[in-house]
Amino acid sequence: MTDHSQEEAKRRELSVEVSVSTTAGFFPTEGFNHVPASQAVQVDLEKAKHALHIKDTTNWIATVAGPSGKRVIDPSKTYAENGLSGKVEIDWGPSEGGGG
Amino acid sequence: MHPAASKALFEEDAQHLSAALAARRGWTLHAVAYPLIDCSFSAPGRTTLRLKLACDDWNDLPPSIGLLAADGAPLTALPHNPTGVFNGGPHPLTNRPFVCMRGAREYHTHPSHVVDSWESLKNLTNYSLGGILTQLWHAWQKGSG
To answer: Does the pLDDT at position B74 exceed 80?
Structure first.
């Protein structure tokens, strides 16, 4: 393996591809953004909020699909700390209000 | 509200309820055309829940939300759900199970909640049409069966 391809492999290992879906649209609009796995998820959620003109994200939760269904992730933690790698599809929206 | 204004608000709100979003969430959008949103929630191991949101007079009124089986038949009994959002009822006006959550017409017209005004919610992001649907989806995901 050349130095260049080793660097590329390392870069891929240290980064994730991220797409955020909301009912106001997707961020990015198509495809995925490459971001460091060491970056907090919140950074991309804030970018999505701005890009999609979402006024208020109070009580919103971020979820990803896993082998046993959807799971909630912690936006204050990094992708790596949330156990995320490769292509990451984050769904973001309001948690349910109280009922009954 | 004038029907044309209501339709314009509906279409602005519903424009991002797309096939791509539905695919990612496991939704089936049977219809998104004023004044109706007809949407099913599905997931592995779960019984599909179909919701019909009647959005006449949106957003002076919240949507009236019908709880249906996958084939469109009205639900007569609800699967287990710990959130309290899906209420076996019967609702005093519809005589059916209903959505007991802020943002559903059946909640705001229920005698227990008539003091909880829709007016104070209707312009909040979480109570857009997509916001209400997302809240219902999250509630449904917490259930089983």
So the answer is: yes
